[in-house]
Structures are given as C-alpha cells and as structure tokens.
Specification:
This protein is α+β, with helices and mostly antiparallel strands. It has nine helices and 15 strands. It folds into three domains: 78 residues, no CATH class; 74 residues; 196 residues, no CATH class. The two termini are 30 Å apart. The C terminus is likely disordered.
Length: 391
Amino acid sequence: MLRIWYDIFMQRTIRIQLQPSASQAASLADTAHQFTAVFNAVCAVGWEQQIINGVKLHHATYYPLKSAYPALVSDLLVQARVKATEAVKSAFALRKTGRTVGMPVSRACPPRLNLHTYKVDWESRTVRMSTTGGRQTIRFAVPPYNAAYAGYPTDTADLIARNGRWWLHVVVTVPAPTVAPTDQVVGVDLGLVRPAVTSTNRFLGKRGWKAIEGRLFKLKRALQKKATKRAKRHLRKLSGKQARFRKDCDHVLSKQIAYAVEPGGTIVLENLTDIRKRTMIKKHTVASRRVHSWSFAQLKSFVAYKAEERGCMVVAVDPRHTSQTCSRCGHTARNNRRSRDRFVCRVCDYELHADLNASRNVAAKYRASVGISDTGGLSSISLSYPSEQSA
C-alpha cells in the first residue's frame, strides 16, 4: 500500500505575468534562446557518451559551454545542465523498457531560476532577475485566480514565453491547513467508462468525456491518412487540444474526488502503476487505445494536491480482485461480475453496481490494512443503484 503524507507546509506553483519593456523582452528572449542551446548541447554530450550522472556531465560540459555562452550567468548554465540530465536519464530509462526513443531535443526549454538568479518583491510587484543583458527589474501582475498565494516565500521559478507574453511559474511555500484527522474513509474506483465511483454512492465525472475522446481520435486518424501539410498543421493543433481537454477533465474529476470526503478524512485510490502491463487486452483495439491513453498518473497527482489543501490523506491500495470480490460476504469469483455494470455474488446473491462494489472493496482493503473496523458494515448501505452525480 502506498501512502502520501503531508507536512505543516505545502508548495504551490502560481503564474505571474511579466510586463517587460521592449529591451527587457529582448533580453528575456535571448536568455531563453541561450538556455535552450545549452540544454541541447548537454543532452548531445550525455546521449553520445551515455552519461546520466549529473556531476560527470557538469565536468564534461561546463567550461566549454561557459566559453561559448559567456553572457549566460553560471547558475543558469548549471540549471540547464540539471534539466538536460533529467531528460537524458528519462530517455535512457524509456529505452530500457523497449521503447524507441531518440536524443532529447528542445525548441524552447524554459529557463529555471532559483534564489541566486531571481527575487520577487510582492509589495512593489517587481521581480529582479538575471538575464543575458544583466540584472533586470521587471514589473509583473498576479492573475486573480493566483492572488491567494501571492506574498508567500518563493522557491524556484520557470520563465515561460507564450503567445508573445512572458510568464513566471513561481513555486511558493504556504502553510498547510490545520485540520484534525477523522475516521472517514472513502474508496474510489477509477475507470474509463465511469471516470470515478466512490464508496459513498457518488458517481463522479461525465460519461460524455469518452465520446469526445472518440471523436478526437477519429479526426486524428482521418488527418493522418491525408498526410498533407495542412493536415499535419491541424494534427499539431489537435494534439494540444486533446492534451488540454484531458487535463481539464482530470482537474474537474480530481476536485470532485477531493470534495467527496470531509476535511481530515482519507481518500483511497487504486494503485494503477504498470496497469498497461498487467491487463490482458488485445493490441490495436479500442480498449487497448483507451487504456494506453488513460492519464491516471496525472489524475492521482491532481487529487493529491487538492486533497492536501483540505487536510486529507491520499493512499493507494492494490486493485487486484476488487471487481470480482463481493463487498458483503467477501466471496471472490470472476463470474460474480455478470456485465460491465452488474455485480451479483454467486454465494449470497448480493447485487450492486459493479463499480460501486469495487469502490467499497477498495475502502475495505485500506481499513483492513490499518486495522480500522467498519462500524455498521458495508452491507448496511442501500443496495439500490444510485443515480449519477456529476459536476
């Protein structure tokens, strides 16, 4: 069982919009360009010489790159090497799994700033940062949706250029909520047809999301068959649209899950690590495509940080047999699940929605692992099919 515990502080990333002058914008653009060049150069050395150790890459690249890019301050040079090391290490790890991966290359690697290269003044709404044109004092604005986190101590920051605008993604450290822990445990069964079902009879998310994903896939396949320049441009835009859609769905669903439990309670998710290897699904089928495009890791991370703000704990349990086990008598059999939505126990004839039954088993697994008794029993909850509740 995996557990995610929280401390007295938590970190959040907020976006602040820079308001540089024309000369400052040129310095920012040159800084980002040189940072990207250093990143790609370090990746090339690490890839060709098969070096994934950060210290070795530093010794192999620092002085040549410092001579080639003297305007880039040493700390930014080091941060570019750190990012490149992470990229090269990840690429080699993917190759070990059998995937075809090429050398990491970036067209625009965001410069990473730290306490040596930038300082935020929340009162004057200015940031002092290192660029290739020297230290610059740049004004910024805080969007309303990030105003609650403005004024807290800062950690690192990434400089982002998007649609002609400059942003700083600043990591701030804020105090965690002081909430007394409770005994409430809510199990969550995650799926592709039903995005999430809780052990408290709540059906979260929207089934229509799957239909939208299907339409996007059909459009992508049609554009890939055309293979014209216009179709390829459309494909690039569609890829970004699909990623944004999935991220938005995960944000909506994770918020619903985080608010399905009282402050101080425990959210129990399924540990879906390596699920693509464990599932017996034929390749090149619709089910295989959906499983391989399932962003369950992103959803779990969203649930974790949203639950943290409510003082809740998130844990993950082994999902094996949760769909085949009766949540009343504990009998486990594959044929207990008569259809996708219908669960009928072969021993005690207990009938329930299959995903709801699985979510109760997820919660029961956690209770059993920590020795919490379920007063009232799982069978005390209504046996009728609940109606869906969506955002």
